[in-house]
Amino acid sequence: MAFVTESSRFGKIGWPLLAWIVALIFFFPIFYLVLTSFKTDADAVKPEFLFRFTPTLENYTNMTQNYDYWRFAINSVITSTFATLFALIVGVPAAYAMAFNPSRHTKDILMWMLSTKMLPAAAVLYPMTFLTKNALGIFDTHFLVILVLCLVNLPIAIWMLFTYFKEIPKEIIEAGKMDGVSTWGEIKDILIPLAWGGIASTALLTFIFCWNEAYWTVRLTTIDAATLSKLIEGNRAPEGLFFGRLSAVSTAAIAPIVVLGWFCQKQLVAGLTFGAVK
Amino acid sequence: MSDRTLPRILQTPAVLLLLIWMLVPLSMTLYFSFIRYVLNSTVRPEWMTPALSNWRGLGNYGYVLKSKDFLFAIQNSVLIVGSILILTVLLGLAIAVLINRNFPGRGIVRVLLISPFFVMPAVNAVLWINILLDPVLGLQGIAVGGLNNLVDGLRDFPVLGYFFNLWPVFEPISFRATQTSAYAVIMMVTWQWTPFAVLIFMTSLQSEDESQKEAATLDGASPWSQFINLTVPHLARPIAIVVLIQSIFHLSLYAEIEIVSRGNGNKNLPYLIGEFANNNIGAASATGIFAVILANIIAIVLLRFVGKSLMD
Are residues A50 and A85 in the same domain? Predict the structure, then answer.
C-alpha cells in the first residue's frame, strides 16, 4: 500500500486527480441537464448533437406558455418563504426557552419533537386529505401548504436553533435579566444579534427543505397552490420528445436552491445530524 | 411572572402545534384502521361513511398482512433502503477519505460534490429516468447506440475485426420494468445522498486525532491498517448516524417511486398506502400503522444513539 502515502509521486498528483474525476462524475447529471436545456427538443435526443449543437434559449423563453412555470414558481416562493418565517417565529422563542431556561422535561420535549419528524407522512395521508378537503375546506390553498411545510420543518428548525443558542454563554443573557430587560427585549436586543448567523443558516436550510418537499405539496394541492415539485411530478413522462423543454423547466426549478445550498453546506451537517457530528 | 412559567409559555405554541399535527391525523388513521371504510362501493354503500357500526376489529390488518402487495412492498422497501445505505456509506467513506487532504481546487471539488443533495426529488427522478436512463432517447440510449456503432466499425478491421465480430450487439436496459425501476430508484437516491454521507464523514475526519496517526506511522503501521484500526473506529458514530437518518428519510421515499414506477408494479410502503387510499381507506390506514411501527423502531434506535451526545 505504499502508493497511498502523500510523499509518493502518485500521492501528489494521482489522488487529487481522482478526487476531481469523482467530483465531475457526481456533477455530470446536473451539467447534462443544464446542457440539454439549451438544445431544441429535436436536437436533445440526437446522438450527433450530444455535445456539439447550436445553443438556443427558446426552452427558457417558452417556459411560461409550455408549463405555466411562473405560477408554480411564485407558489413555491410564497409557500417556502412564509413557512420558513413562521417556523422561525414559533421556533426562536421555543429554542430560546429550552436553551436558557431548561427544565427537567426539556430533553424529552426536544426528543419528542424530533420523533414527530420521523412519522411516515404516508400513514396520515387519508386523514389529512379528509380533514383539509371535507372538514376544513382548505385543500389546495396557500394557507394549507404554508402550514404543513412549517410543521414538517419545525422540529429541525428548533433543533438547529437550540444547538446554536446553546453556544451563547448564559451569563450574557442573565446580565440582561439583572439590568431589568424584559424577555422580549432579551430576545430582540441580545439573542437575535448574537445568534444572527445561526438563525440565518437555520432559515436558509428550512427554506431549502420547504422548496424541495415533494409529498404533501403533491398530495394536498391540485392547481391553485401547486408548487414546482407538483409541476415536475405532473410532467414525469413527457409524451413525445420534450427533453429540451423539460430540462429547461427542471433547471429553473433547482437552480436557486442548488446555489443557496452551496452557501450553507457547512451548516447542513449540524442541521441534519442535530449537532451530533462536529 | 416566575422564572418557570415564562419559558413554558414561550415553547407552548411549538409544542401545541406539533402535538395537534401529530395526534389528530394519527388518531384518525388508527380509527379508520379498525373499521370498514371505502370510498366507492355500490354493493355496500354504508361502508362509504366512517362509522363505528362498520367496526372490523383487526380485520384490516389481517387483510393487509395477507395481501401479496404488502409483502412485496416490504421486500422492496428493504431492498431499496438497504442498497442505498450500503452504497452511500461505502462511496461516502471512500470519497471523504479521498478529498480529506489539501490539493488545488478542493473548494470547488466540495461544491461540485455536494450539489446533487440540493436537487429537488421530483427533478432528480425526472432527470434520471427520462434524460439519463431512457433506453432510446436518453443518454443511455445514445451511449449504447454509439458503442454499437463503434464495434460495428471495428468489425471490418483485418485482425482485430475477428475479435470484435465475437462481440454481441449491446441492448440498452429499460428502467421502467417492475424490478429494474427499483434499481433506477436506488441509483438516483444514491447519487443524491452520497454527498450527504461525504459531508458528514469529512466533518468527522477533520476532528480525527492526527498525533495518533503520526505515532502509528512511526511504529511502521501501513496506511491501510491505520485506516482500519484508527479511522474506522473514529467514524463508527457518524456511520451510525448516516445510516439511521437515511433510513428515516428513505422509508418514506415517495416522489421517486411515483415518477419512476407509476403503474408498473414496483412499490414501497408509502406507495402502497397511496394505492390503497384510492379506495380502501381501512386497508390504507392499517398499512399506515405498520409503517408507523416500523419507523418507531428505527427512531428509538436513532434517539438512543444521538440522544446522549445532544445535551452536553
Answer: no
pLDDT tens digits, one per residue of B65-121: 999 899 999 999 999 999 999 999 999 999 999 998 888 888 899 999 999 999 999
CATH code assigned at B228:
1.10.3720.10
We report the CATH number of the domain holding residue A91 as 1.10.3720.10
Q: How many domains does chain B have?
A: 2
E strand residue ranges, B41-182: none
Residues of A in contact with B254 (CB under 8 A): 121-122, 214-215
CA distance B11 to chain A (A): 4
Q: What angle do CA A44, A46, A51 make, to 5 degrees?
A: 70
Confidence of residue B177 (pLDDT cuts 50, 70, 90): confident
In terms of Cα–Cα distance, which of B110, B118, B129, B116 is closest to A27?
Answer: B116
What residue of A is the nearest CA neighbor of B236? A277
Contact between chains at A45 and B137 (C-beta distance less than 8 A): yes
| Domain range enclosing B153 | 134-174
Contacts of B29 in chain A (CB under 8 A): 123-124, 126-127
**Domain coverage including residue A40:** 1-67+235-259
pLDDT digits (tens, 9 = 90+) for A45-94: 888 888 888 899 999 998 888 889 999 999 999 999 999 999 999 999 99
pTM equals 0.90
- Distance to chain B for A212, nearest Cα, Å: 5
* Nearest in space to B270 (alpha carbons), one of A122, A129, A217: A122
CB contact (8 A) between residue A15 and residue B101: yes
The answer on B112 and B78 residing in a single domain is yes
Q: Do B97 and B227 fall into the same domain?
A: yes
Q: Are residues A185 and A252 in the same domain?
A: no
A264: in domain: no
Whole-number Å distance between alpha carbons of B43 and B239 = 54
| pLDDT recorded at residue A3 | 42
- Asked whether residue B44 carries a pLDDT value surpassing 60, the answer given is yes
What's the gap in Å between the CA of A241 and the closest CA on chain B? 8
- As a residue count, chain A comes to 278
Q: What is the pLDDT of residue A275?
A: 65
For cell 443573557, the residue is A173
B199–A117 C-beta distance less than 8 A: no
